[in-house]
Amino acid sequence: MKKGAVIVDVSIDTGGCFETSEVTTHEKPTYIKNNVIHYCVPNIPSRYSKTASLSLSNIITPFLLQIAEDGGLESAIRCNKGLKNGVYLYHGILTNKTIGEWFNLPDRDINLIVF
Asked: Which three-class secondary structure state does DSSP give residue 103?
Protein backbone atom coordinates (compact mmCIF):
# COMPACT_ATOMS: atom_id res chain seq x y z
CA MET A 1 0.00 0.00 0.00
CA LYS A 2 1.05 3.59 -0.51
CA LYS A 3 2.74 5.48 2.30
CA GLY A 4 0.10 7.22 4.41
CA ALA A 5 -2.73 4.91 3.36
CA VAL A 6 -5.32 4.13 6.05
CA ILE A 7 -6.71 0.73 7.03
CA VAL A 8 -9.89 0.51 9.12
CA ASP A 9 -10.26 -3.10 10.24
CA VAL A 10 -13.93 -3.48 11.15
CA SER A 11 -13.38 -7.23 11.61
CA ILE A 12 -10.87 -6.90 14.43
CA ASP A 13 -13.54 -8.20 16.87
CA THR A 14 -13.19 -11.60 15.19
CA GLY A 15 -9.46 -11.62 14.61
CA GLY A 16 -9.10 -8.98 11.93
CA CYS A 17 -8.89 -9.14 8.18
CA PHE A 18 -5.42 -7.73 7.51
CA GLU A 19 -2.11 -9.43 8.23
CA THR A 20 -0.82 -6.30 9.97
CA SER A 21 -3.90 -5.77 12.19
CA GLU A 22 -3.43 -5.48 15.95
CA VAL A 23 -6.17 -4.63 18.43
CA THR A 24 -6.20 -0.95 19.49
CA THR A 25 -8.40 1.03 21.89
CA HIS A 26 -10.55 4.16 21.73
CA GLU A 27 -7.89 5.88 23.87
CA LYS A 28 -5.09 5.00 21.41
CA PRO A 29 -6.96 4.00 18.23
CA THR A 30 -4.20 4.12 15.61
CA TYR A 31 -0.70 2.92 14.94
CA ILE A 32 1.59 2.98 11.92
CA LYS A 33 3.05 -0.20 10.47
CA ASN A 34 4.82 -0.40 7.10
CA ASN A 35 4.03 3.32 6.61
CA VAL A 36 0.28 2.55 6.72
CA ILE A 37 -2.03 4.00 9.37
CA HIS A 38 -4.09 1.28 11.08
CA TYR A 39 -7.36 1.77 12.97
CA CYS A 40 -8.31 -1.53 14.65
CA VAL A 41 -10.69 -0.71 17.50
CA PRO A 42 -13.04 -3.56 18.41
CA ASN A 43 -16.71 -2.77 18.96
CA ILE A 44 -16.55 0.60 17.21
CA PRO A 45 -20.27 1.29 17.82
CA SER A 46 -19.71 1.37 21.60
CA ARG A 47 -18.27 4.87 21.17
CA TYR A 48 -21.71 6.06 20.02
CA SER A 49 -23.99 3.78 22.02
CA LYS A 50 -27.26 5.68 21.52
CA THR A 51 -26.80 5.89 17.75
CA ALA A 52 -25.72 2.25 17.62
CA SER A 53 -28.76 1.17 19.64
CA LEU A 54 -31.14 3.07 17.37
CA SER A 55 -29.47 1.65 14.27
CA LEU A 56 -29.61 -1.92 15.58
CA SER A 57 -33.24 -1.45 16.55
CA ASN A 58 -34.07 -0.21 13.05
CA ILE A 59 -32.30 -3.20 11.53
CA ILE A 60 -33.64 -5.89 13.88
CA THR A 61 -37.28 -4.77 14.18
CA PRO A 62 -38.28 -5.75 10.61
CA PHE A 63 -36.75 -9.21 11.18
CA LEU A 64 -38.72 -9.65 14.41
CA LEU A 65 -41.94 -8.58 12.69
CA GLN A 66 -41.27 -10.99 9.83
CA ILE A 67 -40.58 -13.82 12.27
CA ALA A 68 -43.94 -13.12 13.91
CA GLU A 69 -45.70 -13.04 10.53
CA ASP A 70 -44.05 -16.34 9.54
CA GLY A 71 -45.55 -17.99 12.63
CA GLY A 72 -42.57 -17.96 14.98
CA LEU A 73 -38.87 -18.65 14.88
CA GLU A 74 -39.08 -22.30 13.79
CA SER A 75 -41.21 -21.44 10.78
CA ALA A 76 -39.20 -18.31 9.95
CA ILE A 77 -35.94 -20.30 9.84
CA ARG A 78 -37.55 -22.64 7.32
CA CYS A 79 -39.00 -19.78 5.22
CA ASN A 80 -36.07 -17.34 5.24
CA LYS A 81 -32.73 -18.61 3.93
CA GLY A 82 -30.91 -15.46 5.12
CA LEU A 83 -32.21 -15.88 8.64
CA LYS A 84 -31.38 -19.59 8.61
CA ASN A 85 -27.80 -18.82 7.55
CA GLY A 86 -27.51 -16.36 10.46
CA VAL A 87 -28.37 -18.96 13.10
CA TYR A 88 -25.31 -19.97 15.14
CA LEU A 89 -27.04 -22.24 17.68
CA TYR A 90 -30.16 -24.29 17.04
CA HIS A 91 -31.63 -26.19 19.99
CA GLY A 92 -28.21 -26.17 21.64
CA ILE A 93 -26.39 -27.43 18.52
CA LEU A 94 -23.63 -25.23 17.10
CA THR A 95 -24.43 -24.54 13.45
CA ASN A 96 -21.55 -22.20 12.59
CA LYS A 97 -18.56 -24.10 11.21
CA THR A 98 -16.09 -21.22 11.67
CA ILE A 99 -16.84 -20.86 15.37
CA GLY A 100 -16.59 -24.63 15.74
CA GLU A 101 -13.12 -24.56 14.18
CA TRP A 102 -11.96 -21.57 16.27
CA PHE A 103 -12.96 -23.21 19.55
CA ASN A 104 -12.54 -26.86 18.55
CA LEU A 105 -16.24 -27.56 19.08
CA PRO A 106 -18.42 -29.97 17.13
CA ASP A 107 -20.81 -28.33 14.68
CA ARG A 108 -23.58 -29.46 12.36
CA ASP A 109 -24.90 -27.99 9.13
CA ILE A 110 -28.20 -26.26 9.91
CA ASN A 111 -29.58 -27.48 6.56
CA LEU A 112 -29.35 -31.03 7.88
CA ILE A 113 -31.17 -30.14 11.11
CA VAL A 114 -33.97 -27.87 9.85
CA PHE A 115 -36.29 -29.36 7.29
From this structure: helix
Give the CA radius of gyration of the chain. 19
- The total number of residues shown for the chain amounts to 115
Q: How much of the chain, in percent, has pLDDT values that exceed 70?
A: 99
Q: Give mean pLDDT, residues 31-44.
A: 94
How far is the C-alpha of 53 from the C-alpha of 71, rounded, in Å?
Answer: 26
- CA nearest to 63, candidates 86, 31, 44: 86
Nearest to 88 by CA among 76, 77, 104, 75: 77
Output the CA–CA distances (angstroms, integers) from residue 77 to 92, 93, 100, 114, in the order listed: 15, 15, 21, 8
Q: Using CA atoms, how far apart are residues 82 and 15, in angstroms rounded to an integer? A: 24
Helix (H) or strand (E) holding 30: strand 30-33
47-78 b/e (C-beta count within 10 Å ≥ 16 → b): eeeeeeeeeeeeeeeeeeeebeebeeeeebbe
pTM confidence score? 0.54
